[in-house]
Amino acid sequence: MSSAAPSRESGAAPPPRHDWTLDEVRALFDLPFAELIFRAQQTHRRHFDPNEVQVSTLLSIKTGRCPEDCKYCPQSVRWNTGLDDEELLPVEVVREAARKAREAGSERFCMGAAWRRPKDRQVDRVIELIEAVREEGLETCLTLGMLTAEQAERLRDAGLDYYNHNLDTSPEYYEDIITTRSYQDRLDTLENVRASGMKVCCGGIVGMGESRDDRVGLLAQLANLPDHPQSVPINQLVRVPGTPLEDAEPIDPLEFVRTIAVARLLMPEARVRLSAGREAMSDEMQALCFLAGANSIFYGDKLLTTGNPDVEADRALFDRLGIRAAGTRPPAGS
Ligand code: SAM
Ligand code: DTB
Ligand code: SF4
Q1: Rounded to the nearest 10 degrees, what angle do helices 253-266 and 33-47 cross at?
Q2: Does the beta carbon of 276 sit less than 6 angstroms from any atom of ligand 1?
């Protein structure tokens, strides 16, 4: 074996569980840091190459004036965040953005719209966008808000690979954050997406002033879904001026790393995405997150409306850590 080959954990992996109790998840969070990270890294190596990270690019295809009241979100019509609103983007603009993302090395193109739920005629327009992105050779992901079963089936038929819909936080903390759609509404949309056969991208946000028990509750909800989401974005709140959470107490960085590690242990086969908030993280903290089992990021200098590290910074980070983007191969002989 060449010295650059990652050591993989051998032995049969236990089957994924869907019956986690809150006490069990709490006990993982309570482990000494070194023990938690070691276990997470062991689990990670059973299922993934630890030196490979999946990269996706985000584009806001419809920006601002959202009727929902999510307290973290710069796009809610209720908060004055100085955002430039934009109607649904034309297909050629989206195609061009997808082409650039592919040229930069991105594998998946994720499009987000500031809607509560799309109307059927809006789904028609979005299907044209899916087709254009597919023609550029990228995997596709959408996040449009709540979906009916029929809409999910139409998107699946158009070739959509992933649908992102987050639970955001624990059921207990949820009403402190959003009042215009319920936790159950979210579970219903997730069920519609799952039943359509599309892959599910579902995670949450930390650093919103929630307690550790809320982080425990969020991860237990995700892990106890009928199937684990294939992709689990863990967002660190981007504190946008004008939103009610602009002054939220930042989360302790090591507690964030613990959240990643517990997500990896609960959902061993999922891509755990180190999602929003990386601009505020040091290289060292991101390295710890990868060590804890994160293996996906957003790539490109913008998320939906807020900033993200630029491609050069991420290339330099990957080089420092010996990480390569999924879908790329190391040079022969290395
Ligand atoms: N409107 C759709 C919805 O909410 O279902 C899709 C777009 S919405 C912006 C997608 C996700 O972005 C939210 O569920 C939330 O998890 C995340 N998000 C929004 N604002 C954020 C912020 N300031 N910091 C971190 N994550 C954020
Ligand atoms: C997810 O969990 N995070 C992404 C994606 N899914 C759509 C969105 C992050 C948004 C951060 C705030 C913004 O840029 O507007
Ligand atoms: Fe609207 Fe989505 Fe933002 Fe909530 S998170 S306000 S639903 S765009």
Answers
A1: 40
A2: yes
Residue at token pair 């966008």: 129
Q: Residues 299, 74, 165, CA angle at the centre, nearest 5°? A: 60
Give bridge partners of residue 56 from the DSSP assignment: 108, 298
For residues 103 and 266, what is the distance between their CA atoms, to the nearest angstrom?
Answer: 34
Classified as helix, coil or strand, 172 is helix
Residue numbers annotated as active site:
66, 70, 73, 110, 141, 201, 273
Q: List the one residue out of 44, 37, 133, 126 whose CA is nearest residue 89.
A: 126
Give residue 14's pLDDT.
81
Looking at ligand 2, which atom is closest to the CA of residue 72? 12
Q: What are the tens digits of pLDDT across the range 143-165?
A: 999 999 999 999 999 999 999 99
Question: What string of DSSP letters covers 131-144?
Answer: HHHHHTT-EEEEE-
- pTM for the predicted model, two decimal places: 0.95
The strand pairing partners of 55, in sequence order, are: 297
Q: Give the span between the Cα atoms of 123 and 119, in whole angstroms.
A: 6
Q: Which residue's C-alpha comes closest to atom 23 of ligand 1?
A: 238
User: What's the distance, Cα to Cα, between the start and end of the chain in Å?
Assistant: 10
